[in-house]
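Deliverable D5.2: sample structural annotation.
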Amino acid sequence: MIKSKKAIIMSQIVWAALALIVIIISVLIITGQLGAVNKTLNDCESKGGECIPADECASGPSFLPSCKDNTICCISP
């Protein structure tokens, strides 16, 4: 049975989109920018939190590794 032209075109679009995603991820890995993207996504401030000492956080800590110097990421509800 011969596939319709619409099915063939949709299949080509899907494969092209997947190839584009693979190319973008490959470029990010090769250039080292994937680490920067990951750091931004795991940043305390980007989640609406603040790095403060543990005893000053009333809502309980979140476990984001971006805070330094014995502070935790405190995200208020």
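Annotation notes: The first helix runs from residue 5 to 31. Residues 5-74 form one domain.
The annotation will be released with the project's public dataset once the embargo ends.
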